[in-house]
Known about the structure:
Elements: H1 4-7, E1 11-16, H2 27-40, E2 44-48, H3 50-59, E3 64-67, H4 83-90, E4 96-100, H5 110-120, E5 125-128, H6 132-140, E6 145-147, H7 165-174, E7 179-182, H8 188-197, E8 201-204, H9 206-209, H10 211-222
Parallel strand pairs: 1-2, 1-8, 2-3, 3-4, 4-5, 5-6, 6-7, 7-8
Amino acid sequence: xxxxxxxxxxxxxxxxxxxxxxxxxxxxxxxxxxxxxxxxxxxxxxxxxxxxxxxxxxxxxxxxxxxxxxxxxxxxxxxxxxxxxxxxxxxxxxxxxxxxxxxxxxxxxxxxxxxxxxxxxxxxxxxxxxxxxxxxxxxxxxxxxxxxxxxxxxxxxxxxxxxxxxxxxxxxxxxxxxxxxxxxxxxxxxxxxxxxxxxxxxxxxxxxxxxxxxxxxxxxxxxxxx
Length: 226
């Protein structure tokens, strides 16, 4: 198993994702987003679906955190929820697979999912958590990286206006695994603060690669003035 801190240097990881309802949906567009991120100095890419990951891997020389968002009936888990979803992206050029590690209703036990990805696919695992307890549980189950990706996106966590820096500090202070910060990092100073606190890397998506989301945020700020 590769040392993840060597595969992904410290710095900025750019999430290049677009869902079917978004204007920039399409593997070719996501590959171009990844090229722009690479030219801009990103140290890695986070990407969704076998098609997008394959296109991005062919376009850039950066390590990729792979995910596969899948809706499973009867479960709230959607970020690489099953071993089968992980298997479908394993050979597309990923350097690590991220899975949702929240305590919501799961289609497969988290410990089994993490173990199978590491043992059968030979890839390290990033655990997308929403609180501290989930991060510690994921680490116990063998996750190579813990992250704050899901903070504020579960019914039992509070969605802060920006990144949840309190959770990030607790995860870093626990000193159990490398921590990758993610979730509502809208501005460069927030990324710098997370790295200064000890995060190994920071994933930024919407603030860089989702112009629809960026435009909506700007318009919301001026609606009362126009």
